[in-house]
Known about the structure:
It contains 13 helices and nine strands.
Amino acid sequence: MKQLKVGIENGTKLLMIHADDAGLSHSHNLATIQLLERGTINSYSMMVPCAWFYEMAEYALANPQYDYGIHLTLTCEWKNYKFSPVLPVSEVPTLVDENGFFFRKRDQLKDRANIEEIRGELEAQINRALNLGLRPTHLDSHMYSVGSDNRIFQVYKALEEKYSIPVLINTELLSMVGLDPAIAVNEDDFTIDKVHFGDFEQFKNGRLKDYYDHLLNNLGEGINLLQIHPAFDDSEMQGITVDHPNFGSKWRQIDFDFFHELEKATFAKKGIDLITWKEIKGLSNKKMGGLTLV
Length: 294
């Protein structure tokens, strides 16, 4: 696994604060835009199959200064809010349940999905974005469902070479979804040094903001990525996340509140340099796919 070191002095703490799930809802879009413009997040990714994707795509086209990616989507965890593949269901029947919607769980995807249908759907999501004129800085994955099986993960990794767009690879995320990094990641793959995300116990015990404070006060050196899910605890998000407190509307409001209250000057005071995918590309001198590597 290659981790980027060229151009980074020893002890340098680099941080990308990344908002997942843009396009999931109008609430998500508004919260993400506010934090981008406040300067306390510096990256986001969009869910192409979702109802509010086009709104966020229009914002991205009008504001190309911000780092944005495609949040490749193969699962839909919500009880009453559903989304389906970009391709016609008749072309990807193994990716959907009996009602034509994405499966709720990664294991269902792993057990039922055809690999070539996965490849086709992921490429269709990217192509839809590109056809709108979007130029994403990276690709990542909703629920990191691409890590549910190594065959799926290899399809995901191959997208970097096909589209010259870097993909997010990280050992913490792979371990979270149960895939052994030693099997899935090759020596030449670029990996983000450390990915950080809150967990349900922190939320349930009212310690999610404490977790973010502790992280910023104790950030390690290298390239760090913090994944958050900012939105508002409003009727829209309450309806979407009903019976799903894990990453539910209250959690997402906390994410918004913490980073909206945070002063951008805080990062410099703590010795943290914010970094984006665009800047990562400029740190080294060997090109591999769309990403420059050591």
